[in-house]
Amino acid sequence: MENEKSVSGTDSARPWQSYHTAYTNAKAGMEKVDKEKVQRIVYEMSKGSKYFENEEKKEAYMKQKIENMRVQWSKLTASDLNHFQKIADKRIVELEGTRDLSRIWLHVDMDAFYAAVETLCNPSLKGKPMAVGGMSMISTANYEARKFGVRAAMPGFIALKLCPGLIFVPTDFKKYTHYSDLTREVFKKYDPNFLAASLDEAYLDITSVGNERSMTAGDVAEELRESIHKETGLTCSAGVAPNRMLAKVCSDINKPNGQFVLPNDRMAVMTFISSLPIRKVGGIGKVTEHVLKDVFEITTCEGMLQKSSFLCGLFSPTTADFFLSVGLGLGRTDTPQATLRKSISNERTFSATKDKALLYKKLVDLADMLSNDMKKEGLCGRTLTLKLKTSSFEVRTRAVTLPTYTCSSEDILKHASKLLKAELPASVRLMGLRMSNFNEGQNGVSLDPKQKTLSEFMVTGDASGRKLGDQVPSHSNDNDDSLSVDTETSFSADTWDSIGLLGTHEILYLHHSDSMLCLKKEETKRNLDLRIDDLENNVDYHNTVANAINPCPNGASQLVERDSSPGKLKESNQDRGKNAINSGDGEAGSSLNPNRPLLWMNDYKCSLCGAELPPNFLEERQEHFDFHLAERLQEEESSGVNQTPKLEQRLKHKSHIMSQIGQRKKHKTSASQDKYIPIDMFFAKTSQNF
DNA sequence: GGGCCCTCTTGGC
DNA sequence: TTCCAGCCAAGAGGGCCC
Length: 690
Prior knowledge:
Blueprint: H1 2-11, H2 35-46, H3 50-75, H4 78-97, E1 105-110, H5 113-121, E2 130-133, E3 138-141, H6 143-146, H7 156-162, E4 167-169, H8 173-190, E5 195-198, E6 201-205, H9 207-212, H10 217-232, E7 236-241, H11 244-251, E8 259-261, H12 266-274, H13 286-296, H14 301-306, H15 308-314, H16 317-328, E9 343-353, H17 356-377, E10 381-390, E11 395-406, H18 409-423, E12 428-438, H19 454-460, H20 521-530, H21 532-536, H22 541-549, H23 566-578, E13 600-601, E14 605-606, H24 618-639, H25 644-668, H26 679-687
Parallel strand pairs: 2-4, 7-8
Antiparallel strand pairs: 1-6, 1-7, 2-3, 5-6, 9-12, 10-11, 10-12, 13-14
The chain binds a DNA duplex (13 and 18 nucleotides) through residues 21, 45-46, 49, 51-52, 55, 61, 133-137, 139, 152-158, 160, 197-201, 282-288, 316, 318-319, 339, 341-349, 383, 385, 393, 395-401, 430, 432, 434, 437, 485, 487-491, 494.
């Protein structure tokens, strides 16, 4: 409470002191920065903005959280505390039993990596304050700029205010990846199984190399750093310790171009940890630091052990275990297996807008990007999450779990549109899409036999279960370097096998005309744009497919009656539902109206007769469609309307297609039992001939 | 009550 | 002049369903 009083006591005179956004954890090279001046400038430049208001909201939330915890703490009785102390003591003994001092870990961190690479490529930048990034956000600042308080993740316009002579250099990931690759070639010589944490950081188990070459850990680190400098011209810092958590802390101690070795000795570890500020530990950020400090007065790792009963009493067992491990200086010492990716996403910030059409356009782009990224990595997922950031910086996420795995932009867009529609109207400044809940096979191997969408089929294979990828050598990636995607922060430690499929990344698409049809990517987008209205009307892609192969009698694309409002559409659909297939007299109830297309309304109801068939009843749907088509043909013949040739032609065309499908299928799969092949598959196969 | 799903928060880089 | 990112993972808590 005293701490809080002192803060609030200065609030009125120096309000920026309580604005924690600007300056929460000094980076290397910022020790001599006039912290108060930086805080004041950042505060003044941010004040009144929507961003600032949101930060204040978050601050208030954090304070509330701290207050709640204080209340909970005050409710703990002596008996409770005694109980939790016993639990904590037991847990400490158990955790201590897991201590492993047999390995020596080295953490390498390149010094101001992006900025250093840029300076290397343009020596005129040397000695001048420089930041990589732009006016909206900077990625890295060199040490000259850091002296002014400029740092990563700071908006450029604020950085410029702090350092008026600041030079901005745009990011060039290609360049950074190249230099990152060079460093990794060096890392491999010391630990072939090194863990890349990002483009500029890595963990190496140097136990073996030290033993084999009878070198001390410090010598190994020295040699490795020299080698990095020789190969790249860049400097790095290193930390050596018995585990990765400590090694990371150590690499920061003598930055830049320095190293620190913590001996593999329990006493040395405990001494080191005793005065280590909790914020230096990976996993403890701004919020956790405040909670521990304000509620329990824990500022050093040692404090975690001193307040162990409270931690066990007020946090979940998982969180309490983490805190106790920190207090004991424990960390991971094993070399983990490459973990599989859990999700894939993309998001874009833009000028805040309420324009529905513009927002849908953004969604189309995101769906396209996500689909392409998924195909590149051979992933199919089931849970789609839409992320929105409103103009007031409020972040919303909305998710939906689909019945089948997918990676197709059509599927993604279809479901994302529904999620977005439910959130509108809203003023949005960021939109993102994430796919998670991948099929276990990864690499696009569907575990769901019902997976039938166009793009999925292309990736996953045909109905026989044979992967298309089987036809080409599977590209196994031993080196995780090449797996990095073009962002600074992607987790390159993950190793993926990828199949060399769809190298051209063409997307097949169904053209809205009688003829068959395969469009390339550039056309896809245009068509998706055209169909935004349809998506909003809950007309799904099954309809598109149905219309493509069995187009509307007038030959035009007709997903819905163009002049129908959603309300009207619903109404007419209901009307149709009242009419049985054979009731066909009168315009309203007739399934024979040549101007009316067959649609699966809301993905289950026939627009002509109201019959209900779930989306996965593909064969039944096809038969149902055939019925209507034959019905229409019969009517045209009997009425003498001169449309017969057209319809007959279409039937003939379809018959021809189906026979081709059969032949192709037979050719590809030795034993084809299916008399019907899903339309998605057909197009996937047909497309192979284009 | 357990499992699953969704939402939100936190944290790292 | 310019006005606060984009990616990933993990944990917690609440709602719903069987």
